[in-house]
Design a protein that fits this description.
About 25% of the residues are buried. The chain folds into 3 domains: about 140 residues, Beta-Lactamase; about 80 residues, Orthogonal Bundle (Helix Hairpins), CATH 1.10.287; about 140 residues, Heat Shock Protein 90 (2-Layer Sandwich). Helix 1 packs antiparallel against helix 2, helix 1 packs antiparallel against helix 5 and helix 8 packs parallel to helix 9. A hairpin with a 2-residue loop joins strand 9 and strand 10. A 5-stranded antiparallel beta sheet has the order 2-1-5-4-3. A 5-stranded mixed beta sheet has the order 7-9-10-12-11, with helices on one face. By secondary structure, the chain is an alpha+beta fold. The protein is about 55% helix and about 15% strand. It contains 10 helices and 12 strands.
Length: about 425
């Protein structure tokens, strides 16, 4: 925007200066010509005053002195055909002036100023002052150069002023864009510093109001989630008591298991709502992955599954909460145990990247070839709910990363999670 405003001001200033300086330049040239003609006429008239009262020698001396002081050649054409002063041809204009008419005539190389002197014994004498093109244009080039420099300076000043004004406009707009990106990334504490023109300040206040409104709505959502949690606890407790009061133990256990599953599902939904409503969390991915693999390694040992864990040397912060990342790792390892035969090996590898971390979970099972669309929510070709990979995908996208499905080196399945860094800025 600054560049466009500078170009606009430069174009506008240039047009105004052209409209002003071109006529002014022509006027300067006309004034220079008029001044030169006036000076030459005065010189010719001063010599004409001496024509009738001086001899030829004195007249020649007067013409030479006048020409030397004025810088214009002076020639006197006497009635008898004698020429005194600078040598010059007797042009048609001189013949016309000899009839008693003073005039100014153009020649191929300059201008003749002719003054007729009447009343002489032999007829009319003509005093000629000659102006060359340089005489007519003296000082014009310097004046035009000065006007050109002045025009360029004015254009430069105009561009500088326009750039300062544009900066005062674009700087608060850039800040508005930066704050909006922070809000989109989940930083609900981001606020603007109103500045610039009144319209931009009004937009800044509107954006701050919107950010405050979003914060209030998310707070209401958290309160609603908590209220739903309390409201559902009572009927779930009643169902559990009803199940425990059944006379048939098997029926009571079956119904109790269904109640437990329902309670876990409700808790998961409420936790997910609270997590999405809260500010972005972070955790040490190395510690979380190590703890969850240690948990699953006990079951892996019982099933005879070789497993390998590769972790970076130091802490590795990622833009995911510890509980959320734990659930993600559990979902991926749970898929390994659910969809590969006992004894199938698996490996977990965590690598630090420039923008966060990469988590790779690979197995030596049959891979994804027999499954339809494993990343489609609720879709599974292996008899499961199909939510495990969807949970992992949402975890990766929440942190600013993504999920990919690849084949492992042993021909099995490999899930790659790109996790964003909490220090990443929009």
């Amino acid at each position: 925007m600054r560049r466009w405003l500078a170009l606009l001001v430069a174009a506008t200033t240039s047009l105004v200066l052209i409209a002003l300086l071109v006529p002014l330049g022509l006027l300067v040239r006309a004034l220079a010509e008029s001044s030169a003609v006036t000076q030459a006429t005065a010189e010719a008239q001063s010599v004409a005053a001496s024509v009738g009262g001086a001899d030829t020698t004195a007249l020649a001396l007067t013409a030479e002195r006048t020409a030397a002081s004025g810088g214009h050649p002076i020639t006197v054409f006497l009635p008898g055909g004698q020429v005194v002063g600078a040598q010059a041809p007797r042009s048609p204009a001189v013949e016309l002036a000899a009839r008693g008419q003073s005039l100014t005539a153009e020649t191929p190389s300059g201008l003749e100023v002719l003054v007729a002197v009447q009343g002489l014994p032999g007829g009319t004498a003509v005093v000629r002052a000659y102006l060359s093109e340089d005489d007519l244009r003296r000082g014009v080039s310097q004046a035009w150069t000065g006007m050109l420099v002045l025009g360029l300076v004015l254009i430069g000043v105009g561009i500088l002023v326009a750039d300062r004004l544009a900066l005062a406009l674009t700087r608060p707009m850039t800040q508005l864009a930066r704050v909006s990106h922070r809000l989109a990334a989940g930083d609900l504490d981001a606020r603007t510093t109103p500045g610039g023109p009144p319209e931009v300040r009004e937009v800044a206040r509107a954006l701050d109001h919107l950010a405050g409104r979003i914060t209030d709505l998310l707070a209401e959502e958290r309160e609603t989630a908590a209220d739903i949690s309390h409201r559902l606890r009572t009927p779930l407790t009643g169902l559990r008591l009803e199940a425990e009061s059944l006379a048939d133990p098997e029926e009571a256990a079956r119904l109790g298991a269904r109640v437990d599953a329902l309670e876990r599902a409700v808790t998961s939904v409420i936790t997910d709502v609270r997590r999405r409503s809260s500010e972005q969390e972070s955790c040490d991915a190395r510690a979380v992955v190590a703890e969850r693999v240690r948990f699953w390694s006990v079951l892996a040992e019982d099933q005879g599954r070789p497993n390998d864990l590769d972790l970076p040397p130091g802490p590795l912060p990622v833009a995911v909460g510890a509980a959320e990342l734990s659930a993600c790792v559990d979902a991926l390892l749970g898929n390994v145990f659910a969809h590969t035969p006992e004894g199938a090996a698996f490996s977990v590898r965590l690598v630090a990247t420039g923008g966060g971390a990469r988590l790779e979970v690979a197995d030596s099972g049959p891979g994804f070839g027999h499954r339809g669309a494993p990343l489609e929510r609720g879709a599974s070709g292996a008899g499961s709910t199909g939510l495990g990979l969807d949970i992992a995908r949402r975890t990766a996208e929440t942190s600013g990363g993504a999920l990919r499905l690849e084949a492992s080196r042993s021909g099995g399945a490999m899930v790659v999670l790109e996790l964003g860094s909490p220090l990443a800025t929009p």
